[in-house]
């Protein structure tokens, strides 16, 4: 609520990605038990949807090894009985098969929109990734899981440079044909601006049966929060909530994208939304700040978010 009273604000669903994207680029790999404790702390703070693990090769991303162990130890309901949705990131049918054998309720398939990034990150081109995504979707649907797809480097690619909206539109059309529940546009290297947020948001249809819209922002060039605010304003025109990824403490980055540091911090994002009168998933920011400090100690890495340093106003 703002100081001037309640506003007819759009709605935002928080997706906490700290346990996955927040940890995958850190030098220190946390044991599964510690990662599960992190998840438990976030759930205790009020988080109800998390990207908890990724089912990828441990030799490629050792920070994500032991996904099954993590999932065996995390809560699937909160203390108040509310369900907790755990999202597992996958790249192919093999990852999806691993996911469906755990308590994951939803898979998220990453599909880069440029061949250059897809080849370096996943060893195939965009066409190959779309084929892999289709196979992963089939596995997930067979197990009754929800499905989202994240379009990586949708705002710009570290290898191909600027990405035209038409290019993202073409990949979006092919992903929509898979029948996904949600589609996310990711600013993987933090180069995006609010005008791009609007342009990409317009690519997704609205109305009954349309997939949900989600965004994933990094604050690498200090535009992440402006982009998040712009994304939040899209909800009013869509008549449905917009989901925003954020990472407690602002930890995160992509190990396959040079200088792709810093997710937007969950606690900073929620402060911004509340002060702007935007209703979002209710989470205790004080507990988030405490969790960010705990993660910082575990990683021996400084907190990137600012709310814990500046304090509430």
From TrEMBL:
Keywords: Lyase, Metal-binding. GO terms for molecular function: lyase activity. CDD domains: DRE_TIM_HMGL. The keyword Hydrolase does not apply. InterPro entries: Aldolase_TIM, HMGL, PYR_CT. Belongs to the HMG-CoA lyase family. This is Hydroxymethylglutaryl-CoA lyase.
